[in-house]
Amino acid sequence: MKQEWKLFRKNGALFTLSLPGILYLFVIAYLPMAGIIVAFKDYRYDLGIFGSRWIGFKNFEFLFVSESAFVITRNTVLYNLGYMLIGTAASLAVALLLNEIAGRLSRFYQTVMFLPHFLSWVVVGYIAYAFLDAQSGFANQALQALGLPPVDWYFDSRYWPYILNPVHLWKSIGFSALVYYAGILGIDPDYYEAARIDGANRLQMALRITLPMLLPLVSILLIVSTGHMFRGDFGLHYFIPNNSGLLYGATDVIDTYVYRALRVIGDFGMSSAVGLYQSIVGLGLVLAANYTVRKLNPDNSLW
Amino acid sequence: MAHNSVRNSILDSVRIPTHNPVRNRTSHRAANIVIHLFFLLLTLFIVLPMLLIAAVSLTEEKLLARNGYRFWPESFSLDAYRYIFEAPAIVLRAYGVTTGVTIAGTLLGLLFISTIGYAISRRDYRYSRITTFYVFFTMLFSGGLVPFYILMTQYLHVQDTLLALILPGLLSPFYVMIMKGFLDKIPPEMAESAKIDGAGEWTIYSRIILPLSAPALATIGLFVSFILERLVQRAAVHRQRQADSAATAAGPNSQHDRLPGPEPAIRRSAGHRRSAIPFAIDTHGDGHRRHGADHVHLPSVPTVLRQGIDGRSHQRLRGFAQAGQIPSPDRTLNII
């Protein structure tokens, strides 16, 4: 004990240095973890977290018995899979192509692609509205100009998977392409020089050097995103469909559902049950994904 | 522009001839055209939606009702903007709040991130592993929104204050990991020799580590706040210029000092492959790897993660450390 105290004294300065971060995380991240018990309680404002009554798994029942449980889980997972696969493939392709061109134009493309990243989902929601509004929207004007019947976009859920995926890509491609592009710039130029001496062409270099060298980065980012598989993008799924009730079947994700439950019913217990469910499944998915990747190739795993 | 042509001609002369240069060059050009076409389409895909909303904002109200949203309005009107600026107080206040929150949040966040990142990057720190886990675990598991909301409103009572905007995003474990990845590359000898000279941990952190990690801090700060982007960029460009002159002065070919500005071709010919800091804002409009130094257009996670402080400045720092000579804060600042 005395020994340990001595060691602590020796490391005290560094510990003090890390103390602000530790305290911050304790308050912001670890205290709410204790609040998870709300998921097993009938939470009441006046009684607080610890005064409220224990009700076991009732809150979970409420979610899983409701008809929406299947729909919102399916939507969340499928959309996230779509975003993940389309986003990764597209931004990898863009990064590889960016790497093939030099000069001012390359910089221009990067800047342009990055622009939507600065917009909030609320603004993007208005942009989508300018396209999709039934009367004045550009999409319907274009359809009519082509002699096709207009579509009530905000009343017809069929089209929404084909709207949300491109919108997500539109907003995110610049950032993720840039992450991969930066990864490419980090590759040692010697590989390319050696390949060039051996007579490799650009395609061969892209596929045989750049892509394999990027693989660890790709796999790490994918592992991290599997952890968010059960977390819907609230902004995207709330503002782009304009919170239109008729679209819930195709656009509602767990997060938007919880938000409405919290706002309309004011049920804290159920909402935090959903939060706990997302956290646990997310943790499980990250562990599983990392385990799988580590089995395949330890270099590509997160830890 | 002049730099570019100089650089390209030097590069062309050293380029290794391939089997059939003539055929190669034509196919090369054709491929380039296809790639540029692709990016042209992509640019349209990105820009057109934003143009539409800009056009709508410039269209007269009446026309919107009659014609709908169009890319090219029949007549332009600034009414919408006039409406906003009739009461500029609201807009100005909003911008004031945004800027204030961003600046305060970024600075505080960077302080938290860099201190804890530095502590866990020190291999001789006894609690490095457990602290790493402590930070990293919050990335994998969270209490969820509701307990967080209850905490903020019922216990911390920050609702309806600016603190509610600043507090939640100060320290992301992801950024701590980036910071650690960067700091791992700083040779431990630096801290050790400083300690021998009697510097405490706080001095080492504030006088050596903090200035050295400016690139990583800039990157993370950029992520933490995009509002501050331009300021940070300018700072980074400025620092890059300083770095270049310092690097050239320290390098073997100090006669290049006289040449203005950072010159990748010359640095390359002097055997400098990487810029003195792992990333820098590209000052030439050309960050292509094979055509010069490693300038990345926007500071980025993986670059900082992968390169940290690159080999050359590594050696330079090691040199200082071995000579038992700690660069004075001013000197260190100059290097960065």
UniProtKB/TrEMBL annotation, chain A:
This protein's UniProt keywords: Cell membrane, Membrane, Transmembrane, Transmembrane helix, Transport
Domain ABC transmembrane type-1: 73-289
Transmembrane segments: 12-40, 77-99, 111-132, 169-188, 209-230, 276-293
Keyword Mitochondrion carried by entry: no
One Gene Ontology CC term in the entry: plasma membrane
GO biological process: transmembrane transport
Main location: membrane
SUPFAM superfamilies: MetI-like (SSF161098)
Pfam families recorded: BPD_transp_1
Recorded superkingdom: Bacteria
Topology with respect to the bilayer: Multi-pass membrane protein
Gene3D superfamilies, sorted: MetI-like
UniProt keyword annotation of Membrane present: yes
Localization in the cell: Cell membrane
Family the UniProt entry places it in: Belongs to the binding-protein-dependent transport system permease family.
Name of the protein in its database record: Sugar ABC transporter permease
